[in-house]
Structure formats: C-alpha cells, structure tokens
Amino acid sequence: APVAGLGLDTELQIERRFVPDECPRTVRSGDFVRYHYVGTFPDGQKFDSSYDRDSTFNVFVGKGQLIAGMDQALVGMCVNERRFVKIPPKLAYGSEGVSGVIPPDSVLHFDVLLMDIWNSEDQVQVHTYFTPPSCPRTIQVSDFVRYHYNGTFLDGTLFDSSHNRMKTYDTYVGIGWLIPGMDKGLLGMCVGEKRIITIPPFLAYGEEGDGKDIPGQASLVFDVALLDLHNPKDGISIENKVVPENCERRSQSGDFLRYHYNGTLLDGTFFDSSYSRNRTFDTYIGQGYVIAGMDEGLLGVCIGEKRRIVVPPHLGYGEEGRGNIPGSAVLVFDIHVIDFHNPSDSISITSHYKPPDCSVLSKKGDYLKYHYNASLLDGTLLDSTWNLGKTYNIVLGSGQVVLGMDMGLREMCVGEKRTVIIPPHLGYGEAGVDGEVPGSAVLVFDIELLELVAGLPEGYMFIWNGEVSPNLFEEIDKDGNGEVLLEEFSEYIHAQVASGKGKLAPGFDAEMIVKNMFTNQDRNGDGKVMAEEFKLKDQEAKHDEL
C-alpha cells in the first residue's frame, strides 16, 4: 500500500511491495543498512544497480550520506522488505543532476530490497529456544566446547554450517579464538541448549568481512546447539547411582574388574556398550590398561555398584578421538560392577553351620559327596546339584575339581555348610567355560558335605588292614605254576577287599586300580608276574632325589 503521496511526481512516493511476516526491528535514523537496489527513470531505463556490482549498498541512514529522498524512504523498513520508491528531483539530484548519468530535474525510481540493519550501539543478542531439563554446568571463559551451528545473514541467507560438514566446531571460549560476538554469545550455555546468537558486524568480521563468504558490514546470525563442554583443568566426575548396603571390599589399584557399561557423549549420543556384545569388559585398573579417566573412576567401587563416570577428553581419547568417538569429546560411562579380584587373592571360606560332632575332617585322598549351588558374585546362578537331584562326588586332591574348590573342601566335616569364594586364577581362569562360566569370573559355591569316605595314605591306591601274609605270592598263585596272571591277581585283590583284609582307594575305578597294580608288578611287561618281580611297596628301592 502507498505510504505517501502516490501519483504526485513532486512528492516522495513509497510502495511497500513485500513485507515479511516477522519484523523484529525497522530502520531508524542513525542505523547502518545494507540493501540491494535497481535505479531507473520513469520510462524504465536503468541508470544504476547494486546487483550489477554483485555487492549491496552499505551506508548510514539519516546522516547525509544518501540523497534526501532515499534517507527518508529507508526509514521504517524491515529486513527482507521490498519497496518501490519514486523520488522527485528536489529530494534527489535537483536541477544539476549527475553529469553523464542523471539528467537535471530527473524523477528517480528505486526498487529496494533491505538485507541488513544494525546500529553502533547494538550488542550481541541471544535468544534461547530450547533449554535441557538438567544443566549441571554452563560455559565459562577458557572452557573448551563442541557445537553445531548454522550461520546466516539477517535476511536468512546461509553462509556456513557445521551440519553440512558433519563435524562439530571445536574451540576454546573467551580467549580470542572466536569473533568477539561469538565469544560473548556462547557464555552461559548448557550442554543440549539451543540458542540463536545475533552479532553486529563490529563484533564479527567488520568492514572487510572474511574475504570469502561474509561481506563487509554484515550482521551474522548463528543457530547454535551445544554438544559438549569441558575445561582443561577438569578431573573426572563420579555420580553414584546404586551402592550396595553390604560392601565388604572396594576396588584398588592392581585389581582385575569385570563390569558392564554404556558409553555416551555429553549430549546423549551412544558410542559403545558392553551389553550389546553380551559380555563384560574385563581389565586391570590403575595400571594403564584403560583410559586414564576410567582407571581413576573405577577405583573404590563395590561389587554390584552402579555409577556414572564423566571423563574429560584429556583423560579420555584426547584431541584425536577414536573410532566413532570424536576428538575432544567428553565421555559418559554408566557402569555396573559385576565382580573384581586381585591376582594375590586366595579363596575365602565362610562356614554357616557345623554339626555338634565335627571331629572327622576331610583331607587329601578322601572321597566326598556334596551338594552345591554355583553362582557369580552378582548372584547369577551357574549350576546346582540340588536342581539336578544328585550329589557331586570327588576324591579330594586328585585334580577332579578346580584348585580353589579342592582347597575349599578341605577340613570340612559331614553336615557342615559353607560358602567358598574362588578367584578366577584358582577357578576357570581367563578362558572360563564356553557358554557356562565367563572368563575371569569370581565364583561363589554354597556347599553342604553329605558323605566322607576316608582315603588311603598319600601314594597308596591299596592297603592291607592287617598283617601281610609272608607267603603272599604263593597265595595269589593258586595254581602253583610260579607265575601270576592278571585274572589271578584281580580275583585275589577283590577277595581281600570283600573280606575286609584290604582296602582300595575310594572314588576310583576299582578295576583300573587293580590293573595298574598288576602292571607295576609286571616289571618286564610280559603279561605275567614272577616271584622275583613281586615286591610290596615298602620293599621298593627308595629314590631320595625324587
């Protein structure tokens, strides 16, 4: 709609051909503007155009730097507004004109598009349009930040974007690494916050621009999303989520830990998880096997504890990053400690019940029958003889169970109940048992001893319960032919056991024991034992060097 005196060639005439929906500010006298224009005479002949020069016309308004009609016509315009202006000679170049360009007493027509407004009194403008629910810290001077941005001019023209490069802009704040307006506009931001920062040119790239994409005297608008924030002086931060009521032991340097974790960046972007691999992360702590921040953050944890460890990049993967972790990224680890031990640990035994008569204690060589529940330190059940409905039977000290279990079953009486905790180096080691016991797992056995059969002295698989016959060879050699075959030998030994005169080591295959005894006597390996070959154990030659 016309603003003033349309149709009168002696007066300034303004037609607003396009007005944007949003107009946060309008041109006032004293403002600096950047605009494009096409200048023509009433017959349509062009005499000038900023478009032909591929550069806006930049000027202060109301300070006599323009013809009077243009000074008046620009007042009240919005950025992106388009006006058609008719300026009479008295408000243009008058009766003199411009030699060779504008004849005297010319009416001038201008098609004007406003691109930019600012004032020397302007400051950085900040508009936050998204604030995260939690904001534990904000940007301060000397902090290092990672953020995404879209950079536009006031008219909305995009000149740069970190999103297009698919890489954050990473920089220190407040120490001169950024244009002054950006240094100021970022202060006070939270991770996850989104804000629009509008910067006048004298706090940006000034009269010269940046020599590439940003023209001189341009106001800049940055739409910023803050992803990350830390200070080079930061240490790790720890937030305890779940701490078990009973914490008999806390991790120390040199311990070996098994833990689950989710790893994210500060803005919540996921980068790794042990849960997705369905396997704990297993490592020594305090010895440089993991990043420095985790080495520190895993100290002092309890089994079953859940904590959040926030690691600044200088204690994480530094400026270079690794894999899908960007350089200079703060890392957030939500961990759950499954178990830990120390290579110097031995087994732990806790007796829960002993019968009144607990005088006969298990020892090496005894044959034991017992029930057990086997679990991990976090309570995960691995195995149970109660569920199977049958006992587990072994000869103590014969290598039939892991070393820690062998140790844990010693000096136990029938009816006793105890818990045995076995570190992995006395259990199933780093390899574990595929599909059953995780590698490097601490094991917990709840045991009840049901039966104990006393074993034989160490080194014996058969003993006599009484005096040995002086004619032993002759008694075994029933047919009196001077040689004993395996059948004769086996029949005789079993007869002695049946009558109670002899005893085989319990828990082993009796036939295998007898066969081994026979083989030991058959010294020349001819399948028969002669009188001169036959010797009792106490008649064997002693080998002190062994």
Write the layout of secondary structure elements.
Blueprint: E1 13-18, E2 32-40, E3 46-49, H1 50-53, E4 57-60, H2 68-74, E5 82-87, E6 108-118, E7 125-130, E8 144-153, E9 158-161, H3 162-165, E10 169-172, H4 180-185, E11 194-199, E12 220-230, E13 237-242, E14 256-265, E15 270-273, H5 274-277, E16 281-284, H6 292-297, E17 306-311, E18 331-341, E19 348-353, E20 367-376, E21 381-384, H7 385-388, E22 392-395, H8 403-408, E23 417-422, E24 443-453, E25 462-464, H9 472-476, E26 483-484, H10 486-499, E27 502-504, H11 510-521, E28 529-530
Antiparallel strand pairs: 1-5, 2-3, 2-4, 2-6, 5-6, 7-11, 8-9, 8-10, 8-12, 11-12, 13-17, 14-15, 14-16, 14-18, 17-18, 19-23, 20-21, 20-22, 20-24, 23-24, 25-27, 26-28
> What fraction strand?
25-35%
> Residue ranges: pLDDT <50 for 5 or more in a row?
1-8
* CATH class division of the largest domain: Alpha Beta
Mean pLDDT: 92
Features:
single chain; 546 residues; alpha+beta; Chitinase A, domain 3; six-stranded antiparallel beta sheet; 13% helix; disordered N terminus; repeat; PPIase_FKBP_dom
Structure in words:
With 546 residues, the chain is of the alpha+beta class. The chain folds into five domains: 13-118, Chitinase A, domain 3 (Roll), CATH 3.10.50; 125-230, Chitinase A, domain 3, CATH 3.10.50.40; 237-341, Chitinase A, domain 3 (Roll), CATH 3.10.50.40; 348-453, Chitinase A, domain 3 (Roll); 462-539, EF-hand (Recoverin, domain 1). It is built from eleven helices and 28 strands. It has helices spanning 50-53, 68-74, 162-165, 180-185, 274-277, 292-297, 385-388, 403-408, 472-476, 486-499, 510-521, and strands at residues 13-18, 32-40, 46-49, 57-60, 82-87, 108-118, 125-130, 144-153, 158-161, 169-172, 194-199, 220-230, 237-242, 256-265, 270-273, 281-284, 306-311, 331-341, 348-353, 367-376, 381-384, 392-395, 417-422, 443-453, 462-464, 483-484, 502-504, 529-530. The strands form six sheets. Strands 1, 2, 3, 4, 5 and 6 form a six-stranded antiparallel sheet that branches. Strands 7, 8, 9, 10, 11 and 12 form a six-stranded antiparallel sheet that branches. Strands 13, 14, 15, 16, 17 and 18 form a six-stranded antiparallel sheet that branches. β8 and β9 (158-161) form a beta hairpin. α10 crosses α11. The protein starts with 12 loop residues before the first strand and ends in a 16-residue tail after the last strand.
